[in-house]
Amino acid sequence: MIKAGILGGGQLGRMLLQAAANYPVITYVMEKSVDCPSGHLCHHFVAGDISREEDVYAFGKELDVLTIEIERVNVAALERLSNEGVKVIPHPTVIKTIQKKISQKAFYTDNGIPTPDYVVTESLAELENHLERLPAVHKLSEGGYDGRGVQILESNQDLPLAFDAPAILEKKVKISRELSMLVACSQNGELAVYPPIEMMVDPYLNQLDYQISPAILPDEVYWKAEAIAVKVVQAFKSPGLFAVELLVDPSNDVWVNETAPRVHNSGHHTIEGNYSSQFDMLWRILLGYPLGNTDPVLTSAMVNLVGAPNHAGNAVYEGLDQILSIGHCFVHIYGKEETRPGRKMGHVTVLHADRSELLHICNKIKHTIRVTSEK
Ligand code: ADP
After folding, report:
1. Could you give the CA distance from residue 140 to residue 162 in angstroms, rounded to a whole number?
2. Which helix (H) or strand (E) holds 225?
3. Which of 247, 249, 259 to mutate to test the pocket of ligand 1 (most atoms within 8 A of CB)?
4. What is the mean pLDDT of residues 40-59?
5. 202-232 confidence digits (pLDDT tens)
6. CA 249 to chain centre
7. Of all residues in the chain, what percent carry a pLDDT higher than 70?
8. Would you list the DSSP string of 163-191?
9. Which of 134, 150, 258, 262 to mutate to test the pocket of ligand 1 (most atoms within 8 A of CB)?
10. Taking every pair of C-alpha atoms in the chain, what is the biggest distance, in angstroms?
């Protein structure tokens, strides 16, 4: 049987392993501690540091295929493994490009992919040479996630908020919509595109609030979003499952914000909402099977369950009984022992033929369930 490894053991790995149970595959996970969300769902758990070359190399060298559930992995080890015949999906070069916002932006520009105009600022001092670009968005090149490496600079007064580290200063787009496009690319280069997902962002946490798919879009936006997402994935020249995040402005221009070359938070709803989920699809890609069907089963929406403010410690899921008594809901708890404010602890997907009813249920979920901590 094929031996497949996943670097990273968070919730994305967990859901990938849930889908793996349907296939003839032996799964391996590397993460620091077995107490992670993926620890007990894989056949073989290997404790290690996914950013250390020796750890990743030792983990991968006995495997047939290797994938990631987070980008912060050691690429040098993946390159060595790939040269020695281990299939690495996505290709290490893609991960390398994506890891730094500076190289990711250059990749879009070099490939004629529309992305907000930007300059590189290596330090705060360099940023001060570009103040005429404000208002703009300052983004750390490396190490930011879930909106935490992103700072909007409205005017010079916001300079103390800027990063004194390699970053990009990007034109601020007037956002009318945020979309995510999931695109699958098989080992033969065949593509399958999921229906567009519209993401609603919580302005306080700068984190996803809920998302709905298929998004109802003007035809012009729909076709641009699909064409741009396909262009991004074709330019990477690598098999994999990709999430292309797009910003749409009031003139219906569509810009690439960033791409994740892996299963993604914006695709959680596909588990129940689409015939082949993003996780099922990635297994088809990794194991060399035909791609799955991306059609929606029904309209679906997804609410992230994040740790409530002012609560840190052993997690308690308040209101879970009530959610489980609502029809149309699918609850996913990630098995993280400890909650923290804003930490992703689970999600709920809702399927409904009626979109207004769907949003009504999402709202109810948001007001019913809270992830708090033991007293
Ligand atoms: P992260 O990598 O941490 O998820 P993103 O680059 O996706 O960060 O940015 C987080 C959020 O910031 C986006 O979802 C969007 O709402 C906002 N944002 C990002 N880039 C721009 C931009 N150029 N103009 C306006 N808002 C932006």
Report:
1. 9
2. helix 219-236
3. 247
4. 98
5. 666 555 578 999 999 999 999 999 999 999 9
6. 22
7. 97
8. -SSSEEEEEPP--SEEEEEEEEE-TT--E
9. 150
10. 60
